[in-house]
Amino acid sequence: MIYSYFQIKDKHYNVLNGIKNNLYSQDKKSFVKKKVKKLNEYQFCFIFIDLMQHYKIAHFPLDVLELFFERSKITVNKSEYFSFNESGNLKDFVPVNVDWINFNCKNDLASFIAYMLETKEYPRETLLTKLLVLSDRLFDDIFHPLENIRIRFQDYIEDATRNGKSMKFDYLKEIILALENHQKHILELSYRIQEKVDKLSTNTQSQNYLIVTDDEILKKLYRELNKFDFIDENKTSMEQFIEVLKSDWKAHNSVIYLKMDNIQFKFFIDCINQFLRTKIPLSFIQAAKNIENNNGKINSKSVRSSVSKSKMLCKDYEVIKVIFEKL
Fold first, then answer.
1. 3-class DSSP assignment, residue 119
2. Tell me, what DSSP letter sits at residue 231?
3. What angle separates helix 41-54 from helix 10-21, to the nearest 10 degrees?
4. Residue 6: strand pairing partners
5. Which domain of life is it from (predicted)?
6. What is the pLDDT of residues 108-150, one digit of tens each?
7. CA of 38: how far to CAs of 11, 21, 31, 144, in Å?
8. CA–CA separation, 267 vs 322, rounded Å?
9. % helix, strand, coil for the chain, step of 5
């Protein structure tokens, strides 16, 4: 189910191409809007991020933005209407309306996560693995794309202000608020997942990173990390390094101590996933508590936050990349 939710099919690319081909045309806008409405949150973010890579925000017509972000008004004192109506003083009722932005998509993420938290379909360890993967994808494929969109809009407003332009400001500020609120919603969902993970973890007998790479390759990786001072050899021996990566977490007390900041560490894990052909979610590492960097035990939210705030490649990017290319 996780794979099917985080999936882009041909029909989604057709929606994307339909928007690109009709960006400045009124034809088919209502048709495309109905197609956008059928997207889930992941697909919604994927398509909008793709558009932002092809067009500057200044070039987005308002009606294109409205394909994704619907404007509406909410009467916040609506309950008072009934009191005035019952008392016969309806003419004294003054509605207080607030502009509101809704994402024009299915908004079914919360119900999907609720199902994953309540399902009895999977054995305990399988469900734990799926929830850890889901937690990572929640951040990598929805939270951070929302953050990317928000920052791009914010940068546009600041840049346009400096240049004396004021197009779409109010609308974009409303969108930014909606993005921030949705990110808070994502965080709330992630906390619910973590609560379930903590509960499942207490009764799980065996867990590991599922790395099947030959020990000789891992020994070479250790030597290269030590050569460039990326690992503390006084705290982590070569044997402990391999033990952490390949053995069940509860079968040992070994810890890998890396001399890396959060951004370097995230790139290091990305390289492991790419070059060792495996997948280690950050949430796995946080749950295992057997890998540390310069900031201490790995906290997945802290790592992602550091990466999202950085607009530069990590320090020693090329060195880390070459280490893995030589394996």
1. coil
2. B
3. 40
4. none
5. Bacteria
6. 999 999 999 999 999 888 898 899 889 889 988 999 899 899 9
7. 11, 20, 12, 21
8. 12
9. 65, 5, 30
* Cα 291 to Cα 241: distance, rounded to the nearest angstrom: 9
Rg (CA), the chain: 24
| pLDDT tops 80 at residue 86 | no
Please report the DSSP string for 192-261 in residue order.
HHHHHHHHHHTT-----------HHHHHHHHHHHHHTT-B-TTT--HHHHHHHHHS-GGG----EEB---
Q: Give the tens place of pLDDT for each residue, 168-201.
A: 678 888 999 999 999 999 989 988 998 888 788 7
Compute the distance between CA of residue 16 and CA of residue 151 in angstroms, rounded to an integer.
22
Residue type, 185: H
As a whole number of angstroms, the distance between CA 295 and CA 303 comes to 10
Q: What residue type is 290 in one-letter code?
A: N
Instruction: Find how far residue 245's CA is from the centre of its chain.
Output: 25
**First-residue to last-residue Cα distance in the chain:** 34
Average pLDDT score over residue span 71-87: 66
Give residue-wise pLDDT tens across range 7-22: 999 999 988 888 888 7
Looking at residue 84, its pLDDT comes to 60
Dist CA 113 CA 190 (whole Å): 9
Show contacts of 24-30: CB within 8 Å, 24+ apart: 24/61, 26/63, 29/63, 29/67
